[in-house]
UniProtKB/TrEMBL annotation:
InterPro entries: PROXY, YbaK/aa-tRNA-synt-asso_dom_sf, YbaK/aa-tRNA-synth-assoc-dom. It comes from the Bacteria. The keyword Ligase applies. Keywords: Ligase. This is YbaK/proline--tRNA ligase associated domain protein. Residues 31-155 form the YbaK/aminoacyl-tRNA synthetase-associated domain.
Length: 174
């Protein structure tokens, strides 16, 4: 049996087909590879906080074993313990590059804020939806972005809302 190989173009095609079928307001932007959220925001001409950053996490404990795609504004940091608690586990960690590839078919930094894998639960911090009319994200590739109407993203992706942004007064104890 031949193994199914999904390329970044396939992820992009899935995304655009989904957005088109849902009459979303969006635009595609081709750009040079940028390694950091700050760099890609400048290239896109967007604010850093408009970036929809995706973290693939593995939640464990209390009998829970769940992969989660956690979406938050690119100018914020995640509190993984809040993600674990919201899912019913006791701890969460970032998934390995191999797990990220298997669950998203994307490299770190290119993960769109949509889950196309049945084992990858999609959550988003509500703060993502209150500041900007449009969200920007890499669309399965480090060289291609989609800038999408925020309300359309929330309607189409329908993520579970979980408050997991780390606040300034919290200490990150590793």
């Amino acid at each position: 049996m031949k193994e199914l190989i999904v390329s970044d173009n396939d992820v992009f095609t899935q995304l655009t087909q989904l957005l088109n079928s849902q009459n979303a307001k969006y635009r595609v932007m081709e750009h040079p590879t940028a390694g950091k959220s700050e760099e890609v925001a400048k290239i896109r001409g967007t604010q850093l906080g408009q970036g929809a950053k995706g973290l693939v996490c593995h939640v464990k404990g209390n009998g829970v074993r769940q992969h989660v795609l956690a979406i938050l504004p690119a100018d914020q940091q995640a509190d993984l313990s809040k993600i674990a608690k919201a899912i019913g586990g006791t701890r969460a960690s970032l998934a390995s590059p191999k797990e990220v590839d298997e669950l998203t078919h994307c490299v770190f930094g290119a993960i769109p804020p949509f889950s196309f894998h049945p084992s990858l639960k999609l959550i988003a911090d509500p703060y993502l939806f209150v500041r900007f009319d449009e969200l920007a994200f890499n669309a399965g590739s480090l060289e291609r972005s989609i800038i999408l109407n925020t309300q359309d993203y929330q309607r189409i992706a329908s993520p579970t809302l979980v408050e997991f942004i780390r606040t300034n007064h919290e200490l990150d104890i590793a």
